[in-house]
Write a structure and sequence with these properties.
The protein has one domain (about 45-95, about 120-270): Methane Monooxygenase Hydroxylase, Chain G, domain 1 (Up-down Bundle), CATH 1.20.58. It has twelve helices and no strands. The longest helix has about 30 residues, at about 205-235. The protein is mainly alpha-helical. Bound molecules: protoporphyrin IX containing FE.
Length: about 280
């Protein structure tokens, strides 16, 4: 690099990379607990922090998608969910980084983490809630963190991505209720018929069809992350209980069947059966 290709050194720049991004503060946020600090604990802390930043971004994006649905602004939802699923691919790929940590290395500082666990990630739980998996049993684990509890309670009250999609279908003239129907009700059957129409005549309902498929992509990637995480857990701690107090991999396997949009999976069985005009 020749000297004249370097930028000039400014005496008093109004803004710098470091000040704008608060890099000094950011790289001071990793505080290993092991003494002497185990080499791998920095990776363990950083990877969780990176996940939390991405969870923040995902919430920001899913909230934006909900606002678009409310405003009948359908195509941008597809664009937003494309970003969401791209981030999810990064999240799943990142698991491999932590898998370079051996069980022996983890065991050196794992005891220090008790009783902390990713199980207590309130942003992860918020993502589940805003996406439609509203299991209240997770609330008590946050009672010592009032701001987190307040966020989760607000998410439980607020409409989900699916709720807003159903409301949109109602406004678009499909014969469905404006609110998400109870499972196995007459209204849920009408919703399934509407979805089958969207899929079978996807050129006519192209924007809705694209959003449906983006939601399936999102749901599928969430499930793939859960699977990747449980495999990582199995290879790192085997059958040990979790630091959060659950049965460990056994508990995590019970979460693998969670689906945010079961209707979008179930409708596939009836595609081809209903033809719109
Ligand atoms: C060596 C690495 C890891 C191990 C051994 C591990 C282990 C576990 C275990 C055993 C649980 C069940 C709850 C408990 O009793 O603790 C759990 C839950 C969880 N972990 Fe991890 N984990 C690891 C890395 C990560 C990373 C990097 C993340 C990213 C944020 C993460 C996020 C979560 C989340 C969100 C849950 C709750 C899942 C649910 O309830 O559906 N974990 N983890």
């Amino acid at each position: 690099m020749s000297d004249d290709s370097l930028p000039p050194v400014l005496e008093n720049p109004p803004l710098t990379y470091t000040s704008y991004l608060m890099v000094n503060e950011l790289i001071d946020l990793q505080r290993p607990l092991s003494e002497p600090a185990h080499h791998d604990e920095l990776l363990f802390i950083q990877i969780h922090q990176v996940y939390e930043l991405w969870f923040k971004q995902l919430l920001h994006e899913v909230d934006a998608a909900i606002e678009c649905l409310k405003a009948d602004n359908v195509l941008p939802v597809h664009k937003i969910l494309k970003r969401v699923t791209t981030i999810q691919d990064v999240l799943s790929a990142q698991l491999a980084v932590l898998e370079t940590m051996t069980p022996q290395d983890f065991s050196v500082f794992r005891e220090r983490l008790n009783p902390a666990s990713g199980f207590q990630s309130y942003q992860f739980r918020e993502l589940e809630y805003v996406s439609g998996s509203k299991d209240r049993r997770y609330l008590p684990f946050h009672k010592k963190n009032p701001p987190a509890l307040a966020r989760l309670e607000a998410r439980l009250e607020a409409p989900t991505l699916w709720d807003e999609f159903c409301a949109l279908l109602h406004r678009r003239g499909f014969d469905v209720a404006a609110t998400t129907p109870e499972a196995d009700s007459e209204e849920s059957e009408r919703l399934m018929e509407a979805l089958a129409i969207i899929y079978n005549d996807n050129e006519k309902h192209y924007d809705l069809y694209l959003v449906c498929e983006s939601m399936v992509d999102y749901d599928e990637r969430f499930q793939l992350w859960r699977f990747g995480h449980v495999k990582m857990v199995e290879r790192t701690i085997g059958i040990l209980r979790g630091t959060g107090g659950s049965s460990g991999a056994g508990y995590l396997r019970t979460t693998l069947s969670k689906r945010f949009f079961p209707e979008l999976w179930d409708v596939r069985a009836r595609l081809g059966g209903i033809h719109a005009h």
